[in-house]
Amino acid sequence: MNPAPDANAFLDAIKNQDVAALNNTVTADTTAKESLIKSLEKIKGSDTAASKSAREMLGKLEVEDCYMGSDRSLCKLSNESELVLKRDGFSWKVDLEDSSFSQVYEKEMQGLFRAEQSPEYVTIQFTLALLEGNLEQAKEYSTDQTHLMLPLIVGMMSAAQQDQTEEQKTKMEEARKELASMACEVNGDRAKCAPEGKEKSMSLVRDNGVWKVDFRKGGSEESEEMDSSESSDEM
């Protein structure tokens, strides 16, 4: 049985953000399926520019070619991703975990919706990533130049938290709470952000429409962040 009709049924469900139809076209519940459903619900329930762009992008998806096997088939899509389909009785169902479509889709959607994130939100997420020692998340919210310094900074933050006293833990929690008062001063494609009442700020730049934390080697931003990291060591 040709897998193309079932691959097209999957794409139709995506284009219409039809979760019920989607459930009938994919294999058992997986993390990739749950993530896709949440994304489609977000797109369907919003009229933001990003959601409109997402619907337009999804509407252009097409099946370009399919290769059928006995139990597994492969369909190539117009966005240069692939769907892996597994035989299910007399039909085929998409295996999202094995399909490169899942990764390509997630990256495309992140790019669209990141443009809607305010500099305050980006600064908070970046700071939380540092506090939690999450290098990958810190990279997501920062420039390529900043990536060069992140391993050192994240390493220092992680080391500082390994042997914390109760007093230090309390101060760390207070630092997290302060993030709720984050405020930014925006000047064109640059911004300076800091919690209310704090003098030291974090610098951001708008890179292709997306706000990112920007440390410059040898610049004040790096010095300020290193000072912040050292303060955490002293907590």
Kindly describe this structure.
It is a single chain. The chain is built from 11 helices and 8 strands. With 235 residues, it is an alpha+beta fold. The chain has 2 domains: 111 residues, Roll (Nuclear Transport Factor 2, Chain: A); 116 residues, Roll (Nuclear Transport Factor 2, Chain: A). Strands 1-2-3-4 form a 4-stranded antiparallel sheet, with helices on one face. Strands 5-6-7-8 form a 4-stranded antiparallel sheet, with helices on both faces. The radius of gyration is 22 Å and the shape is elongated. The protein starts with a helix and ends with a helix.
In short:
By secondary structure, the chain is α+β, with helices and mostly antiparallel strands.
Which features would summarize this protein structure in a list?
disordered C terminus, Nuclear Transport Factor 2, Chain: A, 235 residues, 19% strand, single chain, 4-stranded antiparallel sheet, 11 helices
Which helices and strands occur, and which strands form pairs?
Blueprint lengths: L3 H12 L3 H5 L7 H14 L4 H11 L3 E6 L3 E6 L4 E7 L2 E4 L5 H15 L4 H13 L3 H6 L3 H4 L2 H13 L3 H13 L3 E6 L2 E6 L6 E6 L2 E4 L6 H15 L1
Antiparallel strand pairs: 1-2, 2-3, 3-4, 5-6, 6-7, 7-8
Helix content: 40-55%
Which strand order do you get reading across the main beta sheet?
1-2-3-4
Which regions are unreliable across 5 or more consecutive residues at pLDDT < 50? 218-235
Global Rg = 22 Å
Largest sheet: 4 strands, antiparallel
CATH topology of the largest domain: Nuclear Transport Factor 2, Chain: A
- How much beta, percentage-wise? 15-25%
Number of domains: 2
Elements, N to C (H/E): HHHHEEEEHHHHHHEEEEH
Q: Tally of extended strands?
A: 8
Q: What is the distance, rounded to the nearest whole angstrom, between the alpha carbons of the first and last residues?
A: 65 Å
